[in-house]
Design brief:
This protein is mostly helical and about 140 residues long. The protein has one domain. The protein contains seven helices and no strands. α6 (about 80-115) packs across α7. It starts with a helix and ends in a 9-residue tail after the last helix.
């Protein structure tokens, strides 16, 4: 859930501070369960996309860590192997950073396309986040 929250936070465009303050001041009146359910239903496509992206980035992060660990184990000796290992890790790090940037850019592009295709869902999602309520309905 923590990863999902962070991914959702990264999806949000920066909103003006005044708008955030207004949302917080009137948040008590807007936390009506019926209204929240309607917002959650409306924001469902954005929430699903955020969940997908969160999982994709987490899997990529795990794969990168496994590749680095394997490379370190391969070059764990002393001497020239150690120097080769450092160079190999450096080049692997560059490749992984590029791969990460591409994944984030793809995620951003998909989010923008979804916002253009369904602006109501994007607006409902931003409103849910500004109300500081869980994105999913609590299980009773």
């Amino acid at each position: 859930m923590k990863t999902l929250t962070m991914a959702l936070f990264l999806l949000l465009p920066c909103a003006p501070l005044a708008a955030q303050g207004q949302a917080r001041s009137s948040a008590g009146a807007e936390k009506d369960p019926v209204r929240l359910k309607a917002l959650r239903d409306s924001a469902k496509p954005v929430i699903q996309l955020a969940r997908k992206h969160s999982g994709d980035l987490a899997a990529l992060k795990r794969a990168h860590a496994a590749a680095r660990k394997q490379l370190r184990a391969q070059f764990s000796g002393n001497g020239q192997d150690s120097e080769k290992g450092r160079k190999a890790l450096s080049s692997l790090g560059k490749l992984q950073r590029d791969e990460w940037r591409k994944a984030v850019e793809t995620r951003r592009t998909e989010r923008i396309k979804l916002e253009k295709k369904n602006p109501a869902a994007a607006k409902a999602f931003r409103e849910l986040v500004s109300l500081n309520v869980p994105l999913e309905e609590p299980a009773n």
